Every structure is written in structure tokens, then in C-alpha cells.
Amino acid sequence: MAEASNSVVPQPRSRVRAIKEYHPPLGDRNALRLDFNENTYECSPRVREVLSRIASGDITRYPEREPVEALVARQLGLKPEQLVLTNGVDEAIHVLFQAFLDAGDELLLPVPTYTMYEVYASSTDARVVSIQAADDLAFPFERLIEAITPRTKIIAIANPNSPSGSTCTREQILEIAKRAPHAVVLVDEAYYHFYGETVADLIGQVPNLALARTFSKAYGLAGLRIGVLAAPAGLMTWIRRVLSPYSVNSVALACLPAALDDSTYLDWYVGEVLAARTDFEAALDAAGVRRWPSYANFVLVEIGPKHAEFVRRMNAAGILVRDRSSDPGCDGRVRITIGTREQMRQAVTALNTTLAALRLEE
Question: Are 76 and 212 in contact (CB under 8 A)?
């Protein structure tokens, strides 16, 4: 039946109408996926074993997250009451913002950074205050400190940051939390495994510090959508009030313990990425391509005015990369995910061919 036409239809809140739409780019997902910072290989063999044992009857029951939350809490050295599992790190960000951002509040956001911080904040009645990084894309610590006001309610820090790959030091995070005791300082450690430094041990010691992690990157569980949000128990009480008890599905909960238990696979994959990152950065340097130092599983590169054509030709060669030119201060820049060493050798071949063709056209 055709949709009814009526001049009077329900309208959303004005804040919703003002939200910028986010459309992830689509492409041949059978190509080498160096565009979304996912695990580019596969999940742990132990996860595949769990998937093979899940029966159809298991899907009929509502998921129970608490036993797995207790397991994750032990691994992070936290108490169960300091942690919740979420539907990816996106839900962690969303529920934190829903719990704490009110009319008149401000979210301090160093940019460029993960797009969804601004999207989720825009659905609240708070104001987003962007702090632009300099051309070196280093964490704008001094400018952020200067931007703190009594209205500051949340400060979101991706550490390492995307798309830059830059980091914020532990000392800087502690100073920010000290300067803004009235605000929640969210440290998003989505790329922790490729950096190796964390503030997880400070949860509960610093009363306004929150931590987010995802299992989409190193663990290779992006399709299962599972993440974690940790904070002092007092803050977590309010977060649980806006969190759906069933947002993490039963398949993800069944697979996560197996993924956590397979440290051999995790160490192998992280080691592959770190070695491949070093090799790929050397190839970029040899090709004369400007890059930014990265502590994550990706590298941001300067392509210039031909960035869109570069992305198109890399995609045509079977290598998906991500144009970040629309990010604040990133015009002409492209982000390339780091996979295994063999995968990145393929990427280097396509990169050199594409660059040579573009230079011939100049």
C-alpha cells in the first residue's frame, strides 16, 4: 500500500532536525577493507567454535549480560558495579550523554575526532564546544584546559584519537579531570591494544573519570556489536537508568568470553598490525607521502586536492580507504587502516601505482 500523503505530519524535536546525518561509505566489502579500522583478518578460532555450537533455541531467550560483565570487570581489574557492557562503544557514548547532558551544559570535544560524539551530543539540549587541533593534529591540551567553564559537563577524549592517531598522556588526563571536577571525563580507548597505555586502573580513584572500550578492533567482533563503559559506581547508577537491559545480544555475550580467553590470537594479531604499521609508514616515507604519527591501527596521510580520485582508484584496485577531508582541519587527507603484513604489502603496491598515475596527470 502506498504511503499516505498528508500536509500535516508528526515532526521531531528541533534538536533532532538539526543533527547532521551520518552515512558510512559503502563499497565492495569483499575488497581489502582498510577503511573502517576493523580487524582485517578474522576473529579468534575459539569464537568460531562458540558460534558453531549456538543452537536455534538459544536465540529465543533474552540475553543475560551480568555474568559476562563480571568476567570483563575481573579482566580490567574493576568491580562489576563499575562496568556495563554496551551495544558497541557507540551505545556507551550515547547512554553517557543521555545520562549527563542537559540544557545549558557543554560537551568539550577536541577535533578532529570520532564523528558520533557530536551526533549523540546533538540529540541532547547541550552545546558542543569544539577545540580544534593544530596542523600537527597533536592533542590540544592547553586550548582544552582554557575552554573548561562551569557549564562543562562532559569532556570526550579518544585515546588514541581517530583519524589522527595521536594520543593524550596520562598526566594530561589527570590534569583535565582535576580542572573539571564537575564534568565527566570520558576516555575512549577503542584502539588501546595498538597503543598499550590505559587509565583503567584510575576508575574509582578519579571520581569523574569514565572509560570506554570496544571489542570491534583487535578482537574482531565488530559485527557482534559489543563494547564496555566503566565509571565509578556512583556515576554508573545513573548510566544504568538509561541503558536497555537487553541491548547486548546473546550471541555477542556467548562469544566474548572465548575472545577474551584467547590471548595467543590477540597477541598475534596486534603484533601483525604493529609490524605492518612500521613497514607501511616506511613505504609512505619512501613514496614522499606526508603522514601523521599513529598509535592506532591506521595512518592518516596527506593526498591533497586529488584525495577523492585517490580513494576512487584505490577502491578500484581492491583496497578500500577512507577519505577524511570533511573532518575539521583534514582537507585532502585520507585514513588507511593497517591490517596484516601481507595485506599491507598489497596496499603498498596499489598505493604506489595510484600515486604514480595521479602524478602523471599533473
Answer: no
Domain 14-41+264-360 has what CATH class?
alpha beta
pTM: 0.93
Tens of pLDDT, residue by residue over 212-258, are 999 999 999 999 999 999 999 999 999 999 999 999 999 999 999 99
Taking each helix axis from N to C end, the angle separating 341-360 and 263-286, rounded to the nearest 10 degrees, works out to 20
Spatial separation of the C-alpha atoms in residues 3 and 362, rounded to whole Å: 51
Q: How far is it between the farthest Cα atoms of the chain?
A: 61
Measure the CA–CA gap between 109 and 101, rounded to whole angstroms. 13
What are the tens digits of pLDDT across the range 92-142? 999 999 999 999 999 999 999 999 999 999 999 999 999 999 999 999 999
Choose the CATH number for 51-261 among 3.65.10.10, 3.40.190.10, 3.40.640.10, 2.60.40.1920: 3.40.640.10
